[in-house]
Amino acid sequence: MEVYLDIIFIENAIIDLFLMLVTLRLLRLKYRKDGIYIAAIIGGIYGLAPIVGSAVLSSTLLKIIVAIIMIILSLKEKVLSNIFKATIMFFMVSFTLCGVTFMSLLSSSTYTIYGGMSTSDYSIRWILISILFVGVIAIRVYDTIKERAVIDNFIYDIYIKNDEKILMLKGFLDTGNELREPVTNLPCVIVENNYFNQFDIPDDKKFIIKYDTINEVGEVKGFKGNIMIKNEDSNSWTRVDAIVCGCERKLSKEDEFQALLSRGIV
Asked: 105, 98 in Cβ contact below 8 A?
């Protein structure tokens, strides 16, 4: 009997990726995109254990340990209760899939009381693998579209004006951004430095704003600017006063927005 290790690995990786996605979606737990693919690869490798023929590798204890490792790698928030619930759900979904697979096997097999069950060509297996593969793609596409829709709802077109200089940027409404200039009590707009440095600000008009977060304590430079924010519902523009501050970091890897808006602005 010829056994193709690459085929077995790919099949098990696809199945494990599907099981992980379904498990975490059912529990509404957030997962790491890179972590869940690493977990699927580990599951695909472990799927080769029966070929080795080792009793240790095929033991129930090791199967549970591998499942826990896959769950831990996939979860964003590694809380003990979430790991426990996800592990139980993972096995429940796995047993359900096994039952469906066994039923499909019976439909394509010959069974007699004396001869038992025999299968000459289990073609339905490829149909199941294809369905799982399409299911994985569908879940990922749905998650991407959903995330994209959520982000789009919080992105606004903004104009920043100071004297004669005007910039049009995309601003993301950061509900956790409560930074304000303490004297004027104006909210702050965080802008990437490559845009912020285009403004020529006299020293007497500069603001120094100190901030204190969980991970960092520091200060940023800013200026009082006129900001126009587009209202998506009415396509009108609203003028607000705010302190425009520079930021050294890239705010969006895909350059979807170049500024962070305080919730006191919108």
From this structure: no
3-state secondary structure (DSSP) of residue 209: strand
pLDDT one-digit tens code per residue, 185-195: 888 888 888 88
- Tell me the C-alpha distance between 5 and 239, whole Å: 64
Q: Is residue 117 within 8 Å of residue 106, measured between CB atoms?
A: yes
The amino acid sitting at 81 is: S
Report CA-CA distances (Å) from 28 to 20, 72, 87, 144. 12, 15, 14, 15
Average pLDDT over residues 203-227: 79
Nearest alpha carbon to residue 195 among 220, 169, 159, 156: 169
Q: Is residue 23 a contact partner of residue 86, using CB atoms and an 8 Å limit?
A: yes
92-113, pLDDT tens digit by residue?
888 888 887 777 767 666 666 6
Residues 6+ apart with CB under 8 A from 68: 83, 87
Segment 28-66, tens digit of pLDDT: 888 888 899 999 999 999 888 888 777 778 788 999 999
Cα 146 to the chain's mean position, in Å? Answer: 11
